[in-house]
Specification:
The chain contains 8 helices and no strands. The chain is mostly helical and 169 residues long. The chain has 2 domains: 82 residues, Rna Polymerase Sigma Factor, Chain: A, CATH 1.10.1740.10; 75 residues, Orthogonal Bundle (Arc Repressor Mutant, subunit A), CATH 1.10.10. It is elongated, with a radius of gyration of 21 Å. Keywords: Transcription, Transcription regulation.
Length: 169
């Protein structure tokens, strides 16, 4: 029976610890305030998988640290989106108002979901669905094949329509 290569494991653990400040930096960049231990562990797993999968020949000029950073960032974004999908039905997100106080509360969510189909255009509904799934403005622009300024204009129209609708209830 072969003994596992403990020196490789120890080296890998040391590398993962070396990248922990990078994980914290990405968490701060993404403004992760809650469940930091969970996100830190997800970041560690991302580092582990990135280190195992890093191939300088296939990395298109990216250094190991750039590759690891990208993997950490992508994994944490994926986890944030997953969390958003889970909590999607509780309340429409803060994007409705810039000051963070949403005019739409839980009691309106079911009503809005039904009536928004009639109130909003097809593009506005697509934007709303993508936004509540956690996509960024630039990602939505890419998905819908329009410019970022067009997406910002759609967002403003949706805000106005939803605010008017809520005020008539």
């Amino acid at each position: 029976m072969e003994k596992p290569d403990l020196s490789r494991e120890v080296q890998l653990e040391a590398k993962i610890r070396q990248y922990e400040p990078m994980i914290h930096a990405v968490m701060n960049k993404l403004n992760i305030l809650y469940d930091k231990d969970d996100f830190l562990q997800i970041g560690r797993i991302a580092v582990f998988q990135a280190l195992l999968g890093y191939d300088p020949a296939r990395a298109r000029g990216a250094t190991e640290s750039q590759f690891v950073y990208t993997r950490i960032y992508q994994r944490l974004i994926d986890e944030i989106r997953r969390c958003v999908r889970v909590s999607k039905g509780l309340e429409l997100t803060e994007w409705l108002e810039d000051d963070g106080t949403s005019a739409v509360r839980e009691s309106y969510v079911d009503l809005l979901n039904g009536d928004l189909v009639e109130l909003l255009t097809e593009r506005e509904m697509q934007w709303l669905e993508l936004m509540t799934e956690g996509y960024s403005t630039s990602e939505i622009a890419g998905i819908l094949g329009v410019s970022i300024s067009t997406i910002k204009a759609v967002r403003l129209k949706v805000r106005v329509k939803v605010k008017e609708f809520v005020n008539t209830i």
